[in-house]
Write a structure and sequence with these properties.
With 201 residues, the protein is mainly α. It is 66% helix and 2% strand.
Length: 201
């Protein structure tokens, strides 16, 4: 048996796990788009030098700007669908700022391999920017988006109708029985010298 507090804890962990999985999938889609664009601009899709072969950092920024727009739309509609933004523009400005700042991580990795180590091959560019740099950026962005862009979680009752309803759904999914502790509510009504206390359950 799992009581109310434990159930809510499990619901929060389930929601967080879902957000992480969806964020990784969205990041994978956006990264794939940026990967194709970057290699087309710099390496000509591995069929010869691309139009921006000597400008890998501007090419990287252009490719990832396109990926960022895709990522924002999918994050708002899917990844963080149980969270809302308090920003008037839906968090787009904060999203762009966070992406711009965290983009410095893969750019720094690319700078090190190109300018410091002198590695200019397609493999070196992609390992530094699109593997190491993107991984670091994704970790930073997940927590920053969750905190500063989609910062306000929707209450479970707005999504599921009631905690009891979600408990029943979770119980049906894994065959376990859940018992939700009675919710104690206090309501004060009437005149100032008389209070009515209602207790649910």
């Amino acid at each position: 048996m799992v009581f109310g507090g434990q159930l809510l804890g499990r619901l929060r962990r389930t929601r967080l796990f879902g957000e992480v999985v969806r964020f990784m999938m969205v990041g994978g889609i956006a990264t794939a788009v940026a990967f194709v664009l970057f290699n087309g601009l710099v390496h000509g899709f591995f069929m010869g030098a691309g139009p921006m072969n000597g400008q890998p950092i501007p090419a990287y920024i252009i490719a990832n700007t396109v990926g960022m727009l895709i990522s924002y739309d999918l994050s708002r509609r899917w990844t963080f669908r149980h969270r809302v933004s308090d920003h008037p523009d839906g968090g787009f400005t904060a999203y762009v700022v966070i992406n711009a700042v965290t983009m410095l991580l893969p750019v720094a990795c690319l700078y090190v391999t190109r300018s410091v180590l002198g590695w200019d091959s397609a493999i070196a560019d992609n390992l530094s920017a699109n593997v190491v740099g993107v991984l670091l950026g994704q970790i930073a962005r997940f927590f920053l988006f969750r905190k500063f862009v989609f910062g306000r979680p929707i209450r479970y009752t707005q999504v599921y109708g009631s905690v009891e309803e979600e408990a029943a759904a979770l119980g049906a999914a894994d065959g376990r029985a859940f018992v939700v502790a009675p919710d104690r509510r206090e309501r004060v009504t009437g005149s100032t010298d008389q209070a009515t206390h209602d207790r649910a359950g």
